Amino acid sequence: MFLLALIALPLASAAADLHRHTIATGDGAIEYLDWGSGPSIVMIASLGRGAEDFEEVASGLADRGFRVIAPQPRGIGQSTSPSNPMSLHDYAADVAAVIEQTGTGPAVVLGHAYGNTVARTLAADRPDLVSGVILVAASGRAPLDKDVRAAIAKASDLSVPAAQRLQSLEVAYFAKGNDARVWLDGWYPDLQKRQWKAFNASKPDEYITAGGRVPILDIQGEEDAVIPGRYSQDLRRELGERVSVVVIPHAGHALIPEQPTAVMNAIADWLRLLQRSSRP
């Protein structure tokens, strides 16, 4: 039985506005986007992308009575660029600083794609701040296909013609028939390079245990080219029953812009299940 530090699930509220705030850290500043009020969900964006990717899902969850906070990675918006190379632990520490300064912990922490490694590192480094982890299109120990890796690199290379980038987006990120044009913009190549370095310098065991005892929701896209379906149960096999797996049809690695309502429903259903499980 899992216990989650959340109050009873709230009723829907009026449409929530987006607010932007900036906090000071010891070596700069971190901007975060903030929707709604209530139990907190902290969201960490995908490789080379910013917190704006969460706007539709975050707004929808805020309308259901949650507070959603999404820190901007360093180098985006008012989040200052790092002066030194960063590790996954450094990226996790930035998120921890936002949780601490907003007084929202312990919180459910969601990581999309690359962001899942930061979310799990945070749960391992600061279990006092994390009550649950949601993984969206998460990598684990699955190897990355070389053609998919090449498509990921080309999709975010702003020197490549848009038509070629669109093809790469369709190969790496989107299920067949979904509109990949929504991700033609919103890329930060310098951030992506820094994040790759942090990822390649880490070992999966540094983050994959996700902090020991917290419950995990593993949301997957049925047509994810980065993490194919044959790996869908790997994390549950490794970590056991604290992992709940939800596979969303007609979605790839981008997942959130492809099926935002299904992602919102999966999150809300999981929180309700955890609430029932925590009752005496």
**What is the number of helices?**
8
Strand order of the largest sheet: 1-2-4-3-5-6-7-8
Report the average pLDDT across residues: 89
Poorly predicted tracts of residues? 1-14
Biggest β-sheet description? 8 strands, mixed
Tell me the strand percentage band. Answer: 15-25%
N-to-C SSE series? EEEHEHEHEHHHEHEH
Task: Give a description of the structure.
With 280 residues, the chain is of the alpha/beta class. Helices cover 33% and strands 18% of the residues. It has 8 helices and 8 strands, in the order E-E-E-H-E-H-E-H-E-H-H-H-E-H-E-H. The chain has helices spanning 55-63, 88-102, 115-125, 146-155, 162-172, 189-200, 234-239, 260-277, and strands at 18-25, 28-35, 40-44, 67-71, 107-112, 130-136, 216-221, 243-248. An 8-stranded mixed sheet has the order 1-2-4-3-5-6-7-8, sandwiched between helices. Strand 3, helix 1 and strand 4 (67-71) form a beta-alpha-beta unit. Helix 4 packs across helix 5. The radius of gyration is 17 Å and the shape is globular.
Nutshell version of this structure?
The chain has 280 residues and is of the alpha/beta class. It has helices spanning 55-63, 88-102, 115-125, 146-155, 162-172, 189-200, 234-239, 260-277; strands at 18-25, 28-35, 40-44, 67-71, 107-112, 130-136, 216-221, 243-248.
